[in-house]
Amino acid sequence: MRYAIYFTPDKDDPLSRVAERWLGRSAFGGQMAAPIAAGSFSAAEIAFHTAAARRYGFHATLKAPFQLAEGKSEAELIAALSKFASERKPFSVERIKLARLDGFFALVPAAPAPELDELAADVVTEFEPFRAPLTPEEVERRNPDSLTPTQLKNLYKWGYPHVFDEFRFHMTLTGRVPAAEAARMEAAIGDFFGPLLLEPLEVSRLALFAEPDTGAPFHIKSLHAIGGERERKFA
């Protein structure tokens, strides 16, 4: 079992609903949706391009997937996340936009978002005691030879290369799309998400995701309101 601390909008948020239709799966209950065609892409092509993102569910990474440290329990992790969320204040990102990052498409803040960066940094450090050290196989999966010295240091110290100054908030929508198809994919996503790309992003929830077995789809174990209310469990 691996866990991850992610941001995701609430289940009934319009952005969640559209993203679940795009990806073909809900992380809240694991329900699969029929593949959709978009732009000039067939349903089969969209299903292919969203396969990697579909396994993780619609989210933005704050604390990357980790196994629990020895002596720590799931109940302790849930309680700590609930307390952490209750002691924060919700905030909004004025607008999101579509971006292509290292070949894949994601939703990102349209302008610098220091509150997001601070939240992510605090999650990384606060929950480090819950993370077991990476195995050699887990390190290798991060392709360490391709990382910068700073990213490599982050990987060994924090279990993930893209933290602190290397962090970039993003909500992944595709795997890597070939350059020849990038313009068509950008148009397809823009048409599919439409005016939602002009809306503020409410950062009012933290979610604990879980991967029951290696390679299995991630799902939401519990959802925690920033500012405080009783956590909601989903599995």
Uncertain spans: none
In the CATH scheme, the class would be Alpha Beta
What is the count of β-strands?
A: 10
Number of domains: 1
Please report the number of helical segments.
8
CATH topology: Cyclic Phosphodiesterase, Chain: A
> Biggest β-sheet, characterized?
5 strands, antiparallel
Q: CATH homologous superfamily?
A: Cyclic phosphodiesterase
Helical percentage: 25-40%
Terminal residue distance: 13 Å
- Rg from alpha-carbon coordinates: 17 Å
> Pairing-aware structural class of the strands and helices?
alpha+beta
Q: What is the helix/strand order? A: EHHHEHEEEHHHEHEEEE
Strand order of the largest sheet: 2-1-8-9-10
Second rung of CATH, namely the architecture: Alpha-Beta Complex
Task: Estimate the global geometry from the Cα principal axes.
Answer: globular
What number is the mean pLDDT? Answer: 94
Strand content: 15-25%
Organism: Chelativorans sp. (strain BNC1)
Protein name: Phosphonate metabolism protein
What's the arrangement of secondary structure elements?
Elements: E1 2-7, H1 14-23, H2 43-49, H3 51-56, E2 60-66, H4 74-86, E3 91-93, E4 96-101, E5 104-109, H5 114-126, H6 136-141, H7 149-158, E6 171-176, H8 179-193, E7 201-203, E8 205-211, E9 219-225, E10 232-233
Antiparallel strand pairs: 1-2, 1-8, 3-7, 4-5, 5-6, 8-9, 9-10
Protein name: Phosphonate metabolism protein
Pfam family, one: DUF1045
